[in-house]
Design a protein that fits this description.
The complex is a heterodimer of chains A (358) and B (582). By secondary structure, chain A is α/β, with parallel strands linked by helices. Helices cover 39% and strands 16% of the residues of chain A. Chain A is built from 13 helices and 8 strands. In chain A, strands 1-2-3-4-5-6-7-8 form an 8-stranded mixed beta sheet. In chain A, helix 4 (90-107) packs parallel to helix 5 (131-140), helix 9 (225-240) packs parallel to helix 11 (275-284) and helix 11 runs parallel beside helix 12. Chain B has 582 residues and is of the alpha/beta class. Helices cover 32% and strands 21% of the residues of chain B. In chain B, the strands form 8 sheets. Chain B has a 6-stranded mixed beta sheet. The radius of gyration of chain B is 27 Å and the shape is globular. The chains are: A alpha/beta (358), B alpha/beta (582). Chain A binds chain B through residues 13-14, 16-18, 20-21, 181, 183-184, 187-188, 221-224, 227, 230-231, 260, 263-270, 308, 337-338, 340-341, 343-345, 348-357, and chain B through 37, 40, 42-45, 58, 61-69, 71-72, 74-76, 90, 105-112, 114-115, 139-141, 159, 161-162, 164-165, 168-170, 203. The complex binds iron/sulfur cluster and zinc ion (2 copies). Residues 307-308, 310-311, 336, 338 of chain A line the site of one zinc ion (ZN).
Chain lengths: 358, 582
Amino acid sequence: MSQPSPEVYERGKGMDAHNQVMREIRSRNDASYEPDEPTRVWIDRDNTPDGVLDSLTIVLNTGGCRWARAGGCTMCGYVAESVDGGTVAHEDLLAQIDTALDQERETHDGTCRQVKIYTSGSFLDEREVPAESRQAIAERFGDRDRIVVESLPDFVDREKIADFREQGLETDVAIGLETATDQVRHDCVNKYFDFADFEDACAEAVAAEAGVKAYLLMKPPFLSESETIEDMISSVERCGAVEGCHTVSMNPTNVQRYTMVEQLYFDGGYRPPWLWSVVEVLRETAEEDVTVVSDPVGHGSDRGPHNCGECDDRVQTAIKDFNLRQDSSVFTQVECECERTWDTVCDREKSYSLPLAQ
Amino acid sequence: MTEYFEVIDRDGAARIGDLRLAESITTPALIDDVLTDAGSLWTADRSVPDGDEETLTVLPHRGFPAGTPDEVQTAFDPAVPDIEYPTAAVVTPETAADHGTDAYVLSGGSGLVGHSEAFVDAIVATRESIPPDAGLYLPGVATPGNVATLAYAGVDLFDTDRAVVRGTQGWYLTPDGEFRLDALDELPCACEVCRQGIDEFDREDCLEHNVATLEAELAAVRNRIREGRLRDYLEGQARHEQWLTATFRRLDDQYAYLEQRTPLVRKAEITAASAETLDRVEIQRFAERVTERYRCRFDAPLVLVPCSATKPYSDSQSHGQFQDAIHFRGHVASMTSPIGVVPQELELTYPAQHYDSVVTGRWSETEIEFVVDVLEAYLESNEYPRVIAHVPEDYRAITERVEERLDREFEYTVEAHPTTDESLANLSEALAGKPKYRKRERQHNVIRAIADYQFGAGAGEAIFGDLQVESHYPKLRANDADGEQLAAMVPEYGVLSLTLAGARRWIESDVPTKRVEIGGFVPHGSVLAPGILDADESIRVGDEVVFEGPDAFAVGRANMSGPEMARSSRGIASEVRHVTEK
Ligand code: SF4
Ligand SMILES: [Zn+2]
Ligand SMILES: [Zn+2]
């Protein structure tokens, strides 16, 4: 159904309003970036179908998300016009890969078995990463075991995935599904594809003998704490039921700069999720036939997922532990008085009274 | 149309209401237990709920938290279905409108508490956009400390959410602030759970105490509203938190909002204990009417005297002594904080005999400036041949500033103290040779002065041009030349109540009238809001109003403001004193 071009997305007055607001908010940002520098590079430890592996993680600068230029998602602070002209040249993309490799050499013993490439857009969109660059990058990483590339569902295509499979790489496509509930994805996140498109993308991946890692967003704006917990639990369940989707990465919203979420946050209308909510979802879905991990960025800070300030580090450690072991008994160890407050908030908070507690 | 909520009593923007569920609830009140939430449209489409009479159903909604951009609100604001049963619609100041529901839920409250400007703007905008006879619910924010202020601003419905959440966080709430439970040495409360003492007192107890205290505070608020004394309470209570103090100051700046909702007269006394008293509608209104409507009809020097603690002033010993010395040869006006200037004819008129102030002989600069402004305006609109200032030393800061501003000289007669023999002799001496005015002139001028004050400049002559006065001050009766009664003076409030003949004269005069157009019926005892077709905007609670309809002509005293009469579908709009069929 959906085409990720701004022209087609401009439908529906809710989306128009979100886009208009987001464009205005993003325009306050005047940062710019170099085309031959990756946006960010770091090394993760990830739970993969082959066990826990070190991953070289690269956020490629591919000229920015086209959707963000139209306005885009309400929580995403990704810089819309990251490079002048919009498209990054083939040489520059490869230069970014070289920079990432240099960084890996400096900070890590040997090469990581897994590589993850995010673009804040779609790595498989050939307007962002031309076929030539994609193939060259696949070759560069031919010596690894696994690769993860980020893409919106529309661009997931068995032929493109074949570039990686031909290098002998186990391949996963990371899809920013955000939630399995179409209404929430559309109206709260302002991201316009349907769960059906995600299912189609999974089928494409399966046809190419690849897998899918779904990225979920815990607590977009306008949802109460209990609504977001419910939304995440049902999303994990629905993702787990789709063939090919072997992993769900559920990530709590953090308040990013130049976003609508930040505007709500400044005016007292947004609080990132409680870490207890993350725990609740992980616990409730532990039995599902899908690996569920969560990476609470900025945990313990006002702008990130947090509890009371006393227990945040302990809960975060338990979540990290869970990511690797998928065993919910890790949570029996952590307790704090603020759980009672969180419980009260879950019981009582409504979309018209949020946030009930900081 | 509002069906399940009714406003019973008003005190400024605060009201006593009746949430008319199967079991009715007197508001301001907590409504946690009687709410049914039909659910958020952000997460799913919702079918229109059935509703029931036991609960208030919050219709399917999209809550807009604080900071939601206007464009997003406009685009996502859902249509409100029309349901038979008690319902509430979720709104923001931006989206508020008459949706035909019984109550309105104001979304985004967490962004308002703590921010007086945002709070006042939001409440005023919302209240002005929803029907006056609908309940306003502000969810998730009430505490024992802020609920009096929230009710004062015009919120009717609350919940225990915040009190419970704070309890779980170990905050012990009281009407005068929040305390860390672990920092308390003893429990300053005698509620059931606090009686056990602090040793075993935990957070569960704390939240119970918080809820009990919130309930008790709401009961206190309801009593205060019934007494017409919520403002007096707040001037002290709200002081424990900056934003609450700032809130009622900012509400005072929303003069039109408060003025429309403030009654012309009250039973209760005003306790003048803080600087903010001067900003009260009652005080401002009196000063405005004395300087803009009232006109002195005596041809005599003005004698300025200090106010007395006894009210009315003429009953006090000091004023008795002044009067003996003046002996009807001068026109007396009392100077006072917080009222300003009170001409003798209006000494009974609310709030001139209904205030109590802490007399210390020390004037703050704000008080001085206030009385100076009033006296200056008073002297500009009334021409006196002479001004005799029979005032003690501490009043001279005022009189001298006025002399300077008007470039005229007052005569001072006090030595040491106004009631010394020497001072009183000076006063009498200053008036030597002046003619004495008669009792009848005095009585006529009282009726006419009150008419000016109550109905507008010139009303004294326009309505009471040919006047005969009967009976004794202060229970005067005003008749026309033929002896037909036009009005009676109400001594408790110093106002006039009109007869049908008086009402006819009023509407035939050039003075602005307060008319209410009613349907085809003959009202007896009272007029209900649904019977009203239109009402003059300027009507205030306590005003004399004239009712005209195809079948009847009547006069009475308003229980609602004009805008409230015109827009309400429930409630007693006015008492009716006299009625005649057409
Ligand atoms: S979340 Fe993804 S699609 Fe949405 S604006 Fe950000 S980068 Fe673009
Ligand atoms: Zn905690
Ligand atoms: Zn107690």
